[in-house]
Amino acid sequence: MGRLAPRHDRHPLLPERSALSNFARTSPGPAVVAVLLALFLLVFLVIPVAKVIFVAFQDPNTGALTLVNFADFFNTSLFRESFFNSLYVALMSVLVGSVIAMPLAYFTTRFNFHGAVLIQTLGVIPLIMPPFVGAVAMQLLFGANGSINLLLDDWFGINIPFMEGLNGVILVESIHYFPFILINLSAALNNIDRSMEESAQNLGANGLRLFRRIVFPLAMPGYVAGASLVFLKVFDDLGTPLLLNVNNMLAPQAYLRITSIGISDPMGYVISVILVLFSLFALWTSFLAMRGKDYATVQKGGGGLMKRDLRIWEKVGAYAVVIFTLLVVLSPHIGLTLLSFGTIWSFSVLPDGFTLANYQEIIGTTSEYITNTMLYAGLAALIDVIFGIAIAYLVWRTKLVGRKWLDYLATGALAIPGVVLGIGYLRTFYEFEVPFIGQPLASWWVIIVVALAIRRLPYALRACVAALQQVAVALEEAAENLGATKYRTVKRVVVPLMSGGIIAGFVTSFATAAVELSATIMLVSAESDAPLSYGIYVFMQSAAGRGPGAALGMIAVIIVGVATYLSHRVIERGKRERALDAALAGGV
Amino acid sequence: MSKSSSIFRIAGILTLVAGLLAAPTLVQALEDKLVVVTSFPKDLTGAFKAAFEKNHPGVKVEMLKKKTTAGVKYLQETASNNTSDMFWASAPDAFEVLKSDGLLQKYQLKATGIPDMIGAYPINDPDGYYKGFAGAGYGIMWNERYIKAKKLPAPKEWSDLVKPVYHGHVGMSAPSRSGTTHLTVETLLQGEGWEKGWSMWKEIAGNFNTVTERSFGVPDGVNSGQFGLGVVIDFFGLSSQASGFPVQFVYPTVTTLVPANIGIVANAPHPEAAGAFIEFLMSQQGQELLLDPKIRRLPVRPDIYRNAPAGFPNPFKDKSIGAAVKFDVVKSKNRYNLVNSLFDVMITYRLDDLRAATKAIQDAESALSGKSNAEAQKLIAEAKALVGAVPIDEAMGLNKDFAGIFKKKRKKATDKVTGRQAEVEAEWDNMVKANYAKAKALADKAISML
User: By residue range, what is the domain housing residue B422?
Assistant: First the structure.
């Protein structure tokens, strides 16, 4: 069967000598794609953001160019404190998130585990925290007077501050964003050449040593992709600190200053600039960590990783860990479910009563919201995946000058507050009428898709980069030696081999775009164009709207859950078919 | 598919509107559409939309919901190609901003029977750019289950909120986050005086559980039982109650009633429909809608209160509501951003330090009660003075040049301001942080002596 194919001899990540790079140097194709991508990012990210953010470099009194605002930043103890708080929270969240994600990823990919697809799907759900209602549900469960603390107080007379201060932020962020690690790590684990493991086992390695020395290092690109996303996302995250009313972190400081002091206040943008710079620095560090190592394996697609059976007591233990973890990470959604079916829920363990009235209330209004959400998030995720593949390929497989800047630029979007992007779009595109539509581009629904695509591109991009790093260049060279064109090679060899990572990128972009609010709310210019998150916002403005808002939130969760489950089924089926093909080929 | 048809619909309407604008209109018929930018919740906008569309079949009302500040920004950014007809929100300050930017147009109200004042505040903009359609005043709401479980007394006055028994139980939004919260802060500053007002706010804030990021976060927190008491605008309390939450609401003596407003946007594409909407809002029928349990705002027509449920506050009859403070709009406007910034620097961003100092003082005072120790008493008084201290006095706050540092924009390139907001705030922050730490140390020292 040729499973024990020797590992392809070491080659650097950016091949120097292969036919590939010669091709890239001579053919204009990749350069054209790169220029188009750069143009897209320039028009829809750099220019609109620059139109808003330039005040960071402007003297507020004279309007002259200056760096005085940056001096003010470092002179203010509140900002210095905020910086270290953000850094601390981001690092701790990566740690806690890894602890949550690793067992889930390991058990479901390495062993014959019933319900693996279901677990993988449920593992994505925490990413979908609908705005406002998610926060209310968490407070009702974990708050100082939430269900858990009311019970603890009743039974033991104690109160645990789950939701207080920086530790509260770390808890919520870890629960919220660990799926980035889970998804990317699972994709990477599935991608490992099983011959590697078999070789190691033949040489006597097993158990933890096998995981530590062989499996985990080979899955490293996926882990780094996930962990760096968690770090960047948490570092730049606004929603969670605001939900817990923690103000002394960078992102909330930027947001609060921009939205309350005003659009021309320099400090908000100074903070944004610092967020962007530090995010890029963190990204660059993760590049350094990956440099000079080779994660690619030659044998691919033949069913991927070998799955083993667990012994009965191992199985019990594994299920216990998985179920406990899922219970913890899904608790906000359990709270959301109760909220959506509950009548009044106030200072009590459970709602006073249960009802379907909240769902009846929204029945007339939702179909348009759902269509819009599916359309916007679906299109945005599709754009993200296509651009993600293109950028990943350009960065890691060509030698174009400045190619890394595409990656930095796209990833920098992570640190741009949604409200800044929204205002930038209004400012840049309101004067521009779309031909044949007779409407300004800024109020055409397509602009919402573009905003979502830009904001979620970093997720898909990291997933695609990780997937590409695991594909051996030798496979592409082989295809080209056999006469395949570049286009055909990418289409028939590279993309299929990256499929796990691509789906991971699609799912994360789609799931998070489906509940985005901050840029959307600036850009929605007609109720008929509004997505679900906007509908939730509208309901959550009044006391009577809490239940219906939660019901809408549940619908968002269900839609994304079903979409995720279906895409997992698609990969599984694809994998089985390929495995079958491979087995047949091997049999001949 | 519904998407594309909606695009064609919008495109069709736009061309139609363009045609209407180009040709001189002869008939005073209403346009077929009305776009209202509003910060009000669906419960309110939905009721008015339905009733108005019923009265004027053929007019389709589009309610575009944005937070007040986002709505203002939206109108500013889209002014060059305006598609909105009306702005409909609570905070009069937001309308002042739009008015001074030239983004509103005057409207002469036809409806009669509406008094000039509600409480001590004029109902309509004296310049005629926007109209008050409902009154709103600030007060305290609380969760009955919460105060029962924690054995807290029900509050009545602002001064009740400084009592040690409420430590960690109070929630409020920041004035920089919500225009209506700003009015409450300013009301107390004007009612009690600058120094005393601020020191009272800091004593109340010392009992805060949290400062919420949006004004609706306060009723939301009280309704959930996340914290027990909240400083809120009346309709948040009244409508929460009407929705079934176990909450109560009270107006303290020092409060002010301010109108919630509506105005027509300059260059509105559908001015006739916009005028009709204002008239409807002010009519008997429109005003009655305000009594709906999910809305619960104070009508500006005194005769409507006849139909109000028992216990519904009537500012035209009960002169104690909102009459104690004569609200000075000009003063408030001149130091608007400065007050926001002071509140954030002293309270929002240093809440933990403030709470710790307040707790130490409260502990020292309770340890002192019943004993006589002149030195400890002196230390406590010193600590309280440190917590209450404001970095600038009232004259400085009203000084045009100084307040100019906090202005949102330089109006002209020639405007010259010295000092930067961030620079001033950093200075204040250092002082406030040191004061709180010192106050805590003094109070702790006083405890150790008792």
Answer: 335-450
